[in-house]
Structure formats: structure tokens, C-alpha cells
Amino acid sequence: MSKKIKQIKQLIKKECEKNNLDEFYRYHLLEVEKNALKLLNKLPEANNELVMLAVWLHDLQRIRQLEGDHQQVGVREAEKVMEEYNFSSENILLVKDIIHSHSCAGLTPTTLEGQILATADAMSHYTSDFFLWIATRGERNLEEYKEWALEKLDRNYNKKIFFSFAKKAIQKRHDALMQLLESK
Ligand SMILES: [Fe+2]
Ligand SMILES: [Fe+2]
Predict the structure, then answer these.
(1) pLDDT tens-digit profile of 8-45?
(2) Ligand with the closest atom to the CA of 30
(3) What is the mean pLDDT of the chain?
(4) Which residues contact 64 (CB under 8 A, 6 or more apart)?
(5) 128 C-alpha vs ligand 2 centroid, how far in Å?
(6) Which listed ligand is nearest to 130 at the C-alpha?
């Protein structure tokens, strides 16, 4: 990991701590990092640095608890951080492009790096206690929770995972969660 990316990871960790988002850091961001590294291992032609920057900067709208569109505000905040760290305007543009489509709701990533982030983002929901964590936060009643989780699982599985080997890796967990949530 380059020095600048290490520093940005620390910055994001601190911002999460400050905003009471330690669990988001642990259950989501660290899992996205772990899955992105696995994907990069299998896809060595991708630009590692751009993907890892996008890993740390893709959810800044949530981390900074800002109003507005998750992706558009996220792109704006990511740009500010990258400018502070003196990244080239070319790299800033490329990372903004990766972040802009990471939710795969409307926009779809067209670059390999964008597809890696979207896939790692989706995989993180399977490789951690993400769904149990959200279920125990008391934000939704059971019916609301099931509806929310089923929609998220559907989008994760059908729209955000771009590589068949990645789909295979989370298949069992996806099926188990679907079975649990669809049961009456
Ligand atoms: Fe996001
Ligand atoms: Fe995310």
C-alpha cells in the first residue's frame, strides 16, 4: 500500500471514530478493502492504486453525514481529499468515475476498476455480519427489514457483482440469506 493510501485510510478511520461509525468502518470499509484486494489478486491488469483509493473514499457522503445524493456528494468529497493529497487531475477524474457508479442504481460501472469496487462493495455484505448488524440496530421492524434486505440482496447479487468467480464465492451465503428472509 502506498504511503498516501495508508494516510487516507487513517484519515477515514479517524472520521468514522469521530462520527460514531466504528461499526461501519469495521463491518463495511475493512470488508470492502479485504474483498478488493482479493479481486485485484485475480485481476492483475487493474490499476491497484485507483481501486484502493476508491475503496477508502467511496462512502464519504455517509461517513461525513452529508445531505444529498450518495454518489454525487461522495464524488465531490473524494475530490477534495485527493486534491489535499496532491493526486494528479487525471487520477482524480478516474477515481471520481469509479465512485460515481458504485451503487449500480441507475449508473453502471464501465471500467474494470469501477467493476471491482462495485463487486467488492457487494461482497462485503456477504463476507461480514453486515445483515445481522443492520438487523440489530432497531431502525426497522421485521417486515420493513425483510423488504429492505431482500432489495439489497437482489441488487448486490444481480447488479453489482461483475465476475463469475466472485458470484461463486458468495453463492452459499446469498442462498442462505435469501432462504432466511423469504421464510414466513
Ligand atoms: Fe456506497
Ligand atoms: Fe460502500
Answers:
(1) 999 999 999 999 999 999 999 999 999 999 999 999 99
(2) 2
(3) 96
(4) 15, 19, 77
(5) 13
(6) 2
d(CA 77, CA 59): 9
How many angstroms is it from 71 CA to the middle of ligand 1? 7
Which ranges of 43-111 would DSSP assign to H, the alpha helix? 48-57, 60-63, 70-84, 89-100
**pTM of the predicted structure, to 2 decimals:** 0.95
- How far is ligand 1, taken at its centre, from the CA of residue 103, in Å? 6
Ligand at minimal distance from the CA of 62 is: 1
- Alpha carbon of 180 to ligand 2 centroid (Å): 24
Choices 3.90.190.20, 1.10.3210.10, 3.30.70.270, 3.10.450.50: CATH for 3-182: 1.10.3210.10
